[in-house]
Amino acid sequence: MIPPHQLEIPDMPESIPIEVKVKELLHPIWTENKAKLIERYLYYFVLVTKHGTYIDGFAGPQEPDKPEMWAAKLVMESRPRWFHNFYLFDKLTSI
What we know:
This protein has one domain. The protein is built from two helices and two strands. The protein has helices at residues 29-49, 71-76; strands spanning 53-56, 85-88. It has a two-stranded parallel sheet with strand order 1-2.
């Protein structure tokens, strides 16, 4: 029997790179899901309170050409209109 410290370790085969192909997203998934989540939350909020104030510190549209993803727009158009006050804020910056 050969002692373990004298065993030869065979060379590892060269790894073959695998190219992963991922399709580019058409729009940020989190933005659309955030808008839907806010819409559902507000629906239940107004059912309970029958009034309220909506404050959005990031009210600008992430994708101006996709209004269904714009949370502030969904809130402003929600029915019934039980919100009494809206405070919408955002700061546009150029990169």
